[in-house]
């Protein structure tokens, strides 16, 4: 079985921030859980959240389909080189920073085991303006999407304690054709290619929101 490494875990509760809206022209007062702090030792992973974690906008984050945001540790050196700033794990708002995985190889429906915990990939992550605001870099969210270095969401199939350093072992891959990269491409082009949107929307392990979005486009 293929195995990878959970290098770090980050959590954070939503907070209100007040600052100049700047170039993104969004509201100057905003709430987000995008700021995450590293976890030392074991932490409980539940169906809706990790302990001490939360999301502000439950329309696009959290819930049973998206309690965990994963991101590839392999991207950090590249981002640091491109942006010219130091970045610590969690800088992209992720809960799990993982080595050896990326959007080109992770697939919708993948099930990974971390000790007693089972997680399943549910949808790509679409970065919003809050990522740019957090770092004070206009266009960062757009750059993440353009490069495909976005991350992905996971649901929790089996709860338990996890900690940094654990192995992620691939247990199941029912839909190898639906990589996170491919799913993101289909979502972007859903109005131009309704047939592909309909096919992806019928994947039973895709999040409910994405199913609805894609099947509507595929009508």
Termini, distance in Å? 39 Å
Which CATH-level-2 architecture?
Beta Barrel
User: Would you state the CATH class?
Assistant: Mainly Beta
CATH superfamily: PK beta-barrel domain-like
Q: Structural class of the helix and strand makeup?
A: alpha+beta
Stretches with pLDDT under 50, minimum 5 residues: none
Write the layout of secondary structure elements.
Layout (H helix, E strand, L loop, with lengths): L2 E9 L3 E4 L10 E4 L4 E2 L4 E3 L22 E5 L3 H8 L12 E4 L11 E4 L2 E8 L4 H7 L4 H8 L4 E7 L1 E3 L4 E6 L7 H9 L5 H8 L6 H10 L2
Parallel strand pairs: 6-7
Antiparallel strand pairs: 1-4, 1-7, 1-12, 2-3, 5-11, 6-10, 8-9, 8-12, 9-10
Write a short abstract of this structure.
The chain has 219 residues and is of the alpha+beta class.
Verbal overview:
The chain contains six helices and twelve strands. The protein is α+β, with helices and mostly antiparallel strands. α5 packs antiparallel against α6. The mean pLDDT is 93.
Q: Can you give keywords for this protein?
A:
seven-stranded mixed beta barrel; 219 residues; alpha+beta; M1 Pyruvate Kinase, Domain 3; two-stranded antiparallel sheet
């Amino acid at each position: 079985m293929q195995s990878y490494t959970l290098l770090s875990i980050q959590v954070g509760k939503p907070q209100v921030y007040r600052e100049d809206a700047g170039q993104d022209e969004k509201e100057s007062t905003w709430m987000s859980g995008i700021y995450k702090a590293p976890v030392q030792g074991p932490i409980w992973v539940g169906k809706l959240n990790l302990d001490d974690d939360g999301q502000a906008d439950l329309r696009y984050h959290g819930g049973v389909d998206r309690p965990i945001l994963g991101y590839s540790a392999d991207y950090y050196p590249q981002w640091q080189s491109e942006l010219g700033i130091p970045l610590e794990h969690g800088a992209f708002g992720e809960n799990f920073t993982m080595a050896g995985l990326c959007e080109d190889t992770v697939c919708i429906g993948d099930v990974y085991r971390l000790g007693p915990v089972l997680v399943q990939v549910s949808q790509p992550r679409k970065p919003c303006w809050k990522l740019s605001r957090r770092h004070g870099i206009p266009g960062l969210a757009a750059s993440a999407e353009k490069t495909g270095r976005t991350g992905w969401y996971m649901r929790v199939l089996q709860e338990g304690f996890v900690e940094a350093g654990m192995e992620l072992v691939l247990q199941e891959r029912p839909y190898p054709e639906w990589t996170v990269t491919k799913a993101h491409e289909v979502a972007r082009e859903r109005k131009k290619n309704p047939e592909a949107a309909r096919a992806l929307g019928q994947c039973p392990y895709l999040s409910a929101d994405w199913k609805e979005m894609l099947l509507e486009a595929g009508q």
